[in-house]
Amino acid sequence: MNIGEGIDNQSFRILIVDDNQSVRDMLYNLLTQEDYECISATSVKEAEKVLNQNEIDLVISDIVMPGSEGGLQLAEKIRQSYDSEVILMTGYVDEFSFDKIVGMGVSDFIPKPISSTSELLMRIKQVLVKRMSYKDRDRAEERLQKNIDSMKQLLTGVVNTLSKTVDVRDPYTAGHQRRVAKLATLIAKELGMSQKEVMTVEMSGLMHDLGKLAIPQAILSKPHKLSELEFGLIKTHSRVGYDLLKNISFPWPIAEIVLQHHEKLDGSGYPEGITGEEMLYEAKILCVADVVEAMSSHRPYRPALGVDTALEEISDKKGQLFDSRIVDACIRVFEKRNYSIEDLESNGDLSYYMSQLDDFQLNTEQTPTEELLSFGVC
Ligand SMILES: [Fe+2]
Questions:
Q1: Which of 59, 91, 115 is the last residue of a domain?
Q2: Cys bridge to 321: 23, 39, 127, 264, which one at CB 3.0-4.6 A?
Q3: Percent of residues, the chain, with pLDDT higher than 90
Q4: 134 part of a folded domain
Q5: DSSP notation for 261-296
Q6: Average pLDDT over the chain, rounded to whole?
Q7: Residue 82 alpha carbon to ligand 1 centre in Å
């Protein structure tokens, strides 16, 4: 296959810049016969006017022209301000170094007089084919970015929807996950964690009780103290949540954080009874936020205990059940908010953090469609 075969010359616009009318006319006629769209200019100034008003794929310019500016200056202006390829021509070949000119970003350097029009056409075609492949790559990158943005929006929507399914199932604690996610996010920010870590905390918080979907509603909303058996069932929700989330290829350890959100530093938590050394830091934050929100809020079996009581509880157990730095950060969060829990109702920042992620990619070799299937979306 010949270079550029199948490429439509009509799709390229070429600007010919030469003070010599016979050269301009020769190039103009030659290139328009090949179906290229051509515009002529007699000087750098005129060429700039054309470049300002038209999209030009290729500028073919003489180097030496009357006045202070010639092809080299034009090539530099194009490099700085315009998106066009450049081919320079000159009758004074010995005065210019090919390497130096190509080093300026010029695509080709052709001696005058033009000895072979077929060679000239071939070299022009080579430059334009290269340009087209760069443009195709740019378009592909643009398409990829759009797909990534769509995936981010989709993921945010799926996480929020999954979070709300628990509210539907357990209306007595509706909004608990959202408030825990918000408080955990504030704590993570207070601790100076990165945007990606804060987002991981928020995402895990929004789904940390997903496993409660498997708990009978009668137990979730029971207005009395739970029996040992019932509490045993409630305790399964961390693992059920983990099982539901583990096959989604999040680029962050969301399922593991959900699994660990009831673990405690001293190993007295559940389901594994792991200690602080084995717990993920994000899980330690969720653990504190979960306890504070749960104690501060109304439950079917008791009225709200209030923020002060909740903060006293985590302070008492600081270093034993809860990470000390996280507890201190949580207390500072409430000090700054005058001990109000109301503003935890506001919407989270998940979509904002997601949009800021510049290295978003799912940990998978699956196709996007397989990803969607793994979310249960289609
Ligand atoms: Fe929980």
A1: 115
A2: 264
A3: 53
A4: no
A5: TT--TTS-SSSS---TTTS-HHHHHHHHHHHHHHHH
A6: 86
A7: 58
